[in-house]
Design the sequence.
């Protein structure tokens, strides 16, 4: 299969799906290759990656002692 | 999931230890879904009770976190869809999310970008964390839920579509528009906080 080269516009269009690992293997590899070689697209990908990490971190907040006690009471009832 | 040896800890102890380990993540995710501490605690409590009742369904104990997060999201989404179907509740539409493309990268000035990527800038990082919470909470509900399912919980587009009962293309479209709106909000917050020249 011949090697396909993506241009910057195509890479930007697929960037979020790339970071979400939702592209087929061939396109993932082509995206990776482009990002290794293109400083502009790499910078944008890094920012998008940081945003994604921040969103993931937003899903962790300290559970209150009230909630922990409530969970313990539920577990004790099993 | 079952105790495999006679001298293994009782199943309830293992289950309890896992819940203890994941309490912050379960509560954090529930808080993003509900946007309210009391409702988030109710959602976690209901999730824990359901998970215990359905423990036999867990085939691989290593997949415990993903499994219980799915119970949490299914519990929230079921209630959300029920409320949405109610004629009393005015449901949000796709039009509520600004569909215009927006890239934070294209808006940012270099000094801010350096701050973002420098973990030693604790104050800026804290501000951004708070901004992320605020920007996420401000999204229309259907879009916020898509972001939570994929970005916060780490579900694939297909898994998110199955939980929501919508086509994968709908998840992709909601994510794309939600992320553009998130970046627009973050840019506004950064500008208002004086982080941009």
Sequence:
């Amino acid at each position: 299969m011949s090697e396909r080269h993506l241009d910057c516009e195509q890479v930007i269009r697929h960037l979020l799906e790339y970071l979400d690992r939702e592209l087929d293997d061939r396109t993932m590899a082509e995206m990776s290759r482009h990002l290794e070689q293109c400083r502009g697209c790499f910078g944008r990908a890094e920012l998008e990656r940081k945003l994604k990490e921040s969103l993931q971190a937003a899903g962790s907040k300290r559970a209150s002692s009230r909630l922990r006690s409530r969970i313990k009471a539920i577990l004790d009832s099993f | 999931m079952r105790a495999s040896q006679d001298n293994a800890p009782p199943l309830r102890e293992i289950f309890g230890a896992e819940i203890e380990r994941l309490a912050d993540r379960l509560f954090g995710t529930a808080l993003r879904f509900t946007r309210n501490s009391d409702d988030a605690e109710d959602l976690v409590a209901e999730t824990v009770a359901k998970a215990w009742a359905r423990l036999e369904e867990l085939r691989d104990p290593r997949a415990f976190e993903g499994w219980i997060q799915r119970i949490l999201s299914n519990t929230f989404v079921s209630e959300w869809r029920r409320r949405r179907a109610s004629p009393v509740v005015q449901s949000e539409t796709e039009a509520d999310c600004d569909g215009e493309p927006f890239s934070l990268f294209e808006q940012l000035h270099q000094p801010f970008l350096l701050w973002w990527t420098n973990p030693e800038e604790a104050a800026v990082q804290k501000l951004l964390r708070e901004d992320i919470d605020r920007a996420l909470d401000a999204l229309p509900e259907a879009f916020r839920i898509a972001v939570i399912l994929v970005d916060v919980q780490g579900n694939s587009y297909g898994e998110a579509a199955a939980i929501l009962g919508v086509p994968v293309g709908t998840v992709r479209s909601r994510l794309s528009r939600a992320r553009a709106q998130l970046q627009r909000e973050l840019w506004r917050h950064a500008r208002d906080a004086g982080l941009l020249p």
About this structure: The domain at 11-85 of chain B is CATH 1.10.1740.10 (Rna Polymerase Sigma Factor; Chain: A). Chain B touches chain A through 49 residues (CB under 8 Å). The longest helix of chain B spans residues 168-192. Chain B has two domains: 11-85, 94-192.
